[in-house]
Amino acid sequence: MQRAFSITNNKIILNFTLKYCSSEIEILESEGFFKVFEGFLKKLSKSGSYRLKYFEGLRISQNLQETLTDVFKLLLVLSSSEISKIKSEYQKIVSSPDMIIGFIEEFYNYWRRHERYAVIHASKQMSGIQNVNFIDEMNNFTDLILKLYRTIEEKINGQTHHIYRQLSAGVSAGLVVYPLEWRATHKYEFLNSVFFIDTITIRPPFISYPQQTTRDGFFKEVDELDLGEISLDSADFLCYPAWVGDSLAYVYFHQNLMSHGVALCNLFELAKLSECEGRKPDLIYIFGAESDMEDEACYFHDKESNIFVGVAKNCKKVDYFGYMKKMLLTLHNVKMIEQGNLPIHGAYVNITLKNGKEANVAIVGDSGAGKSESLEAFRILSEEYLQGIKIIFDDMGSFTISNQSIVGYGTEIGAFVRLDDLENSYAYNQMDRAIFMNPDKVNARLIMPVSTYSEIMQGYPVDILLYANNYVEKSTVLEFFENKQEAIECFRKGARKAKGTTTETGIVESFFANPFGPYQRQNETNLLLDRYFDKFYELDIPVGQIYTKLAIDGKEQSGPQEAAKALFDWIMKNK
Questions:
Q1: Beta strand ranges found along 19-138 (DSSP E)
Q2: C-alpha to C-alpha distances, 429 to 267, 395, 433, 446, 448, nearest whole angstrom
Q3: Measuring CA to CA, which of 40, 213, 366, 454 is 20 to 30 A from 552?
């Protein structure tokens, strides 16, 4: 059963379909206002707030929350002096303007510190104009919250404000969702009543504060999961239908983890509902399930339905976007391996220099090796060196052998990057489009769109393949392997110095620098490595290492820039 309002931890979800406030008085009389106000008073009580003690010390006869709500209602139409005449018991409250305004400011900030989402459950018959109306209603709701806040303060003060800050006081993001049927077999019928996202509206800057800042370990592949043991209330879940490369994924996420579900829109192409109607997905991910399974997150291949299925429990540990993104990539990569394609953990770009020379460059490396930071270095140096750059993938993609070339494809339209390793001004320049996660903590992240789906799926033949070495300092920034075995050994070893993106520390190794599929399917991947590296050397495609120096103190930005310049020089001489 749908709920008009819910508040959990730091997330507030408003169901505009069941309840939409169109006036200030409706807000003050709503269930949502009551619950938010109740939570605020509990917080003040727990912290021993002097303002709360002041109001409690007035010895008001009725419940304090009801009294203050009543005062707020009266302040919408009356001045402080008029209220004192009509209700003498309220004189003690309104006669202390500094105290009550301080209280209102704290309450207003308490509301704004929550992640706030609006959802509208639409019917199939509704036309596209519904989305336009929803955006208007989101804007109107923001204006209404600001008007309520300002009116009450101005009535207390007896004068208007002279400075107005048009803050994002309403909701941070809004979603239009629809019912959808995709011919689910019996074992997936419990997902049938979950609504699918059709439209997402974000009001920047969008900042969320997940409980975790790192991801731990690998995702375990199991033979099978008993989906019947998963407890899922459809009122608590939404589905983001995503294109992960050429895989159609239905991502069911618990609304307690709403920020991760919404953040998907900056990373994976949102599939049209017309593409999903009656269509079985390639991948299913249930993120935030109530389950007794042993691992926090695991996956299996449902061979009967030919669907790769991942499940993550609803627990504090998975409240990090890495658990959302990386499971989807793992599912897709395992599918790629079974199809004979080679999953690549790295960055792949089409670079055109100012003299017109062009190259498609693949840089392989695990988290923190410097692949994304190298792309950032390309951007910084673009004005001096580049005519253009196209990002095919920033984290994960795949290679396929096509005729007399190895062709690379992307999986994501966006990037999930560390703030610490970016140029200081860059994050501020992305405020209008990026989603920020824990910006005040180590391993702070931003998620931003960097490409289009049609571009990442176009297919670009590889011109050079490099392994990103982030911990060795050499005067030679580019080195090439003379033979296949030497190259495979380096790439398969996947060595890097951990940068705090996971719980690992020091020099670590990961199979083929890719814990998301190849690690779980090492035998199959080894066969693919032999086949693909044979092809690289047969086609005389250069294979080597690029020393990004990202993990060397003081080289976090200069190292990738030196690597970028060396790569530009190589393209200049060899293309």
A1: 115-121
A2: 18, 21, 9, 12, 11
A3: 213
The predicted-structure confidence for 3-38, as pLDDT tens digits, reads as follows: 889 998 899 999 998 889 999 999 999 999 999 999
Q: Do 149 and 27 fall within a single domain?
A: yes
Q: Which residue has the tokens 């627990």?
A: 315
Query: Which residue shows structure tokens 């951990």?
Result: 498
Tokens of 250: 């239905």
Q: 1: pLDDT confidence band, cut at 50, 70 and 90?
A: low
Q: pLDDT tens across 429-458, in order?
A: 677 788 999 988 988 999 999 899 999 999
Give, in order, the Cα–Cα distances in Å from 495 to each of 171, 245, 368, 514, 515.
44, 26, 11, 11, 12
Write down which residue in 288, 320, 338 finishes a domain.
338
75 and 62 within one domain? yes
H or E element at residue 456: helix 453-456
State the burial class of residue 263 (Cβ atoms within 10 Å of its Cβ: 0-12, 13-18, 19+): buried
Residue 442 included in any domain: no
In whole angstroms, give the CA distance from residue 130 to residue 136: 10
CB 502 within 8 A of CB 316: no
CB under 8 Å to 428, separation ≥6 — which residues? none
Whole-prediction pTM: 0.92
Q: Domain range for residue 46?
A: 5-118+125-157
Beta-bridge partner residues of 400: 407
CA angle 17, 18, 19 (to 5 degrees): 100
CA distance 507 to 268: 31
